[in-house]
Specification:
This protein folds into three domains: 257 residues, Rossmann fold (3-Layer(aba) Sandwich); 85 residues, Up-down Bundle (Four Helix Bundle (Hemerythrin (Met), subunit A)), CATH 1.20.120; 52 residues, no CATH class. The longest helix is centred in the last third of the chain and has 24 residues. A hairpin with a 2-residue loop joins strand 6 and strand 7. With 470 residues, the chain is an alpha/beta fold. The protein is globular. The strands form five sheets. Strands 5-4-3-10-11 form a five-stranded parallel sheet, with helices on both faces. Bound molecules: adenosine monophosphate and zinc ion.
Length: 470
């Protein structure tokens, strides 16, 4: 199976060809861990999960590296603003190290709940300071840096290809499209590789370096860690589209300048998850987490199903109504699979009937055409409703499709930690179901809150609503 991917570098849909036969080096920009991941961030990690699963489905062995940005960084990509980690530590009364450890665990837990496969390796920025220093030294030796105001900068005027992947118009940038806040920068596209002069007092995370005690700029961590684990030339690099103009542009400049060769063959970026009010953002606050969906009674896999319903390169608007529809579609799916499983066992993929075979081929075409997951969901339903496909084949093909979709079709089980429901509570639960049907979400939320206050979560499972102790 040839996997076709849209490459941001060149803006072209092209067949994926690995550098090393049968293998893929995949690097994904991971989370900044000064807060919970919001459901927008989780869309990025879900897209990367689908990409990885698709490559594995196509027979590749994938080495998947994801960084954890646990060094404090500024609230703005362009080296401006307040240090995010210090801000969070101050607000929560914890140390920056504890903040990073706490939110790293929370992130990993969220991805587990979404059935996102663990990367081959998480690489923590704080554990790779030496590698970053080595790369900055390499850049220094090659004449790509200057020191100003105590910080080490990347000199982008020495790298003529700067901004090529992002299609940045250099002229426009030079003429002040972006305000140069840092007076030490010689050019607006220059960026900090190493800070010794922090703008903030009590910088908690600092390390010794040839340029003095300080801490690395954000961009250098991805270059240093990806090259360390995947080599100086690897296959695929991913992230959200917001990373194209600054973070990934800077990563390319410093990596190619340091190594003197092309760095990454395919750049794949996901579009945003939006709220009706616009983009969700960690720094602006007021965002939804996976836990907040769970507290409303949704299963994390309902959110996974919801995300599968949008193509990763299209914007997707989150609404509670669409999450409800995804939850109910997933419920139907689990019921359908459950009843098939009661009657039969999955057949052999080698001996599929013609209709089943052609359903699977459609799915393969769609997933390998730049990961068209909405079409793949339709293929799954087409299969399950097809009277020309035997039950054995339905199960075999659905489970095969699930290698990519990750909906736990074969293993999903409702948690058994249910509490017994009194007659009175059952009436409230029924009233809530009625309210939801009538789109009276205020009343539905009120009822959920009644249980919440008593220490219970209402869980809407494919087998009906039940109560779980918090
Ligand atoms: P961060 O933890 O802020 O570095 O973000 C982690 C990942 O989420 C990055 O790849 C971002 O590009 C991506 N991202 C941030 N906001 C959104 C959003 N609203 N929708 C989809 N992806 C996002
Ligand atoms: Zn990165």
């Amino acid at each position: 199976m040839t996997v076709n991917l849209f490459n941001t570098d060149g803006r072209i849909l092209e067949p994926f060809k690995p550098i090393k036969d049968g293998n893929v080096g995949l690097y994904c920009c991971g989370p900044t861990v000064y807060n919970y991941a919001h459901i927008g961030n989780l869309r990025a990690f879900m897209f990367e999960d689908i990409l990885r699963r698709t490559l594995e489905y196509a027979g590749y062995k994938v080495k998947h590296i994801m960084n954890i940005t646990d060094v404090g960084h500024l609230t703005d990509d362009g080296d401006d603003g307040e240090d995010k980690m210090i801000k969070a530590a101050r607000e929560k009364g914890m140390s920056v190290w504890d903040i990073a450890a706490f939110f790293t665990d929370a992130f990993i837990e969220d991805t587990n709940r979404l059935n996102i496969l663990k990367p081959t390796m998480y690489s923590r920025a704080t554990e790779h300071i030496e590698d970053m220093i080595k790369m900055i030294q390499k850049l220094e030796d090659r004449g790509y840096t200057y020191v100003a105001g105590g910080n080490v900068y990347f000199d982008s005027s020495r790298f003529p290809e700067y901004g090529k992947m992002a299609l940045l118009d250099k002229q426009e940038l030079q003429h002040g499209a972006r305000v140069v806040v840092d007076q030490n920068k010689r050019g607006p596209q220059d960026f900090v590789l190493w800070f010794t002069m922090s703008k903030f007092e009590k910088q908690a995370m600092t390390w010794d370096s040839p340029w003095g005690k300080g801490y690395p700029g954000w961009h250098i961590e991805c270059s240093a860690m990806s090259c360390k684990y995947l080599g100086s030339h690897f296959d695929i690099h991913c992230g959200g589209i917001d990373h194209i103009p600054v973070h990934h542009t800077n990563e390319i400049a410093q990596s190619e300048a340091a190594n003197g060769e092309k760095w990454v063959n395919y750049w794949c970026h996901n579009e945003f998850l939006l709220m009706k009010t616009g983009k969700m953002s960690k720094s602006k606050g007021g965002f939804l987490t996976l836990q907040s969906l769970v507290e409303k009674g949704f299963d994390p896999l309902d959110f996974r199903y919801f995300l599968l319903g949008g193509h990763y390169r299209s914007q997707l608007v989150f609404t509670w109504e669409s999450l409800e529809s995804s939850a109910s579609a997933r419920k139907n799916l689990i019921q359908k699979i459950g009843s098939l499983k009661e009657n039969t066992k999955p057949g052999s993929l080698e001996r599929l009937g013609e209709s089943a075979k052609s359903r699977l081929m459609d799915f393969n075409d769609h997933i390998s055409s730049d990961l068209m997951t909405p079409r793949c969901l339709a293929d799954l339903w087409g299969l399950l409703k097809d009277n020309n496909v035997t039950d054995e084949d339905k199960l075999a093909v659905a489970f095969k499709m699930d290698e990519v979709l990750g909906l736990k079709m074969n293993t999903y089980e409702v948690e058994d930690e249910r509490s017994t429901i009194s007659e009175e509570d059952q009436l409230l639960i029924d009233e809530r179901a009625e309210a939801k049907k009538e789109k009276n979400y205020n009343r539905a939320d009120e009822i959920r809150d009644i249980f919440n206050k008593r220490g219970y979560v209402l869980v809407d499972s494919p087998e009906g609503t039940y109560l779980r102790k918090k």
